[in-house]
Hints:
- The protein is mainly alpha-helical.
- The protein has one domain (8-192, 232-250): Triger factor/SurA peptide-binding fold, CATH 1.10.4030.
- The protein has helices at 8-21, 27-30, 34-41, 43-54, 81-97, 105-128, 135-146, 152-160, 167-187, 195-208, 215-245, and strands at residues 70-74, 77-80, 248-250.
- The relative contact order is 0.17.
- Mean pLDDT is 81; it is low at 1-54.
- It holds the Pfam family SurA_N_3.
Amino acid sequence: MKKLTILLFALAISVLLAACSSGEDNSSDSAGSEEEQESQGDQTEAAEGTQAAQEDVEVSDEEKVDEGKVVATVNGTEIVGEEYNSLYVQTKIMLQQYQQDTSDTDLIKTQTLDTLISQELIKQEAEAKGITVEDQEVADNIEQIKSQYEDDQQFKDEFLDKLQLSEDGLKEQVAYELRLQKYMDEELPEVEITDKQVEDYYAQLESQSENVPKLEDIQSDLKDQLAQQEKQQKLNEVIQELKDNGEVEKLI
C-alpha cells in the first residue's frame, strides 16, 4: 500500500497497535478476517464504510479532555488533549465499523493513549533514521481524500469535523502515515511468504466460508496480505522494544 487515499489505513494501524499495546493477541483474529481482507483489498469500499460509520458515532463531553491538557509524555515529548480527542473519535469509528463494542469508554481511552504513544515512538525513531516526507507527498494524498467529496465544504463537514481534525492535524496525520510506510519499507526486514503458508491460510478461509474464490484467483492477494501481517508483527516488536527502552508516562 504505497499511496494513501483515505485515513482508513491510519485507523486500522491505530487499532492494531493499540490492541498489541494492551496485551491482546492480534494473531488470533488476523487469519480469515473478512473485514481485514476488505480493508487491504478495496480501499474505496472501505472508505465508504468509514464515512458511513462516522454518521452514527457520538462522543460525549465526558469522554473528551481539555485540548491543552498533557495526556502522556514520550521521551520528554508531550502529547496533548487535542491529539487525544481526535484519535479517540477515530478509534471509536473504527471499532464501530468492525462491529466492536464501543460502550466501554475506558477501553477506548486505553487504546487511544497506547496508539498515540506508539505513533510518537515510531515518529521519533523514523526521525532518528533520517526518514523524511516531502510536503508535496502529503499534499497529493490530501487531494486524493478531498477528491471523494463534492467540494471543500462537504469535505470539512463530513470528514474533518466528524473526525475532529483540523487541516493542520490532517497534514500531520497523513505525514505520519507516509513516514510509517517508508519506515516499514526501509527499516524492517524483507518478508518471504512461501506457497505452503498461502495454502494453509487459504485452507483456513475455506473452513470459515463457502464462498471463497479459487486459490489461483486470489493467491497473489493472499501472499501480499500475509506479508503485510508479518511486517506489522515486526513493527509491533519494534514498538515494544522502544517502549521498554524509553521513558513513557500516561497522565490521564
